[in-house]
Design brief:
- It is built from five helices and ten strands; from the N terminus they run H-H-H-E-E-H-E-E-H-E-E-E-E-E-E.
- Strand 9 and strand 10 form a beta hairpin.
- The longest helix is centred in the N-terminal third of the chain and has 33 residues.
Length: 278
Amino acid sequence: MKRYTAVIAVIALITAFAAGTQFGKSSEKKNDNSSKPAVTTSAEKNSDAAAEGTTSEGEEATQPDPLAPTEAQATESHAEQVTDAPEEKTGQPDPEGDGSFSYDDSGAVVFDGGSSDGENDSTLIAAGQALFESACRTQWEYTVGTPYDYDRNIYIEDDLGWQYYLVTTDGIDSLADVENEYYQVFSSNYPNELSGLYKESGGALYTLCGERGMDIFYSYSKVTSITSRTDNEIFFTVENYYTGTDRDSTAAYSETDEFSAVIGSDGTWRAGKFRLPY
């Protein structure tokens, strides 16, 4: 009888344990359904994890790329790129000039003491480079475009039907006014092409303003040597460099040209013989 009672107790205990286990599973499943989390995008998860300094539960932490630049390195790299950007030239145009010359307000080259006499060839070549660059800027400004304000609604036409627009800048009413400003950088000893680009009519001045694009293959120009000199003029060799041609964009080449600086009675250098290289 005792043995039978023990067997009944064991069976009852096993039955109760099984029922408890089944109840636990059912309760757990019910809790999972009732507490289902809201859908979160991977971007939100990454953002939350980054804010907390941890990874999401169930996700394995990843080792940062050791080759990826740090924020400080990226900032330093950007600073180097900004530093490498060309700066506008002011004051002394070329360090090889040893501080002996500079641009005046118009772009001509002037020497300390008012004269380039006694300067060595290196300084004279540096001054020639500075003047050549100023001549390029001035020639482009006056002959490719125009430095003056103008009105496209008011124009005259030449015999070929080309339109010249009314110049509206105060004080610029004639070709002579334009030449006076142009000859602040260029020497009046040499002819110019301004008469074909500016026309007078009815007491007013009109500009062609025949804008065009720069030669896309032009790279840079360098004054390389002094070829000859007189009392009031120095002639230089200029090497103009190009990255290619219309037929072959990779065929780099250079062309040699001659450029001169005319020395005024006050010692100021202005461009004489000159050809725009682009």
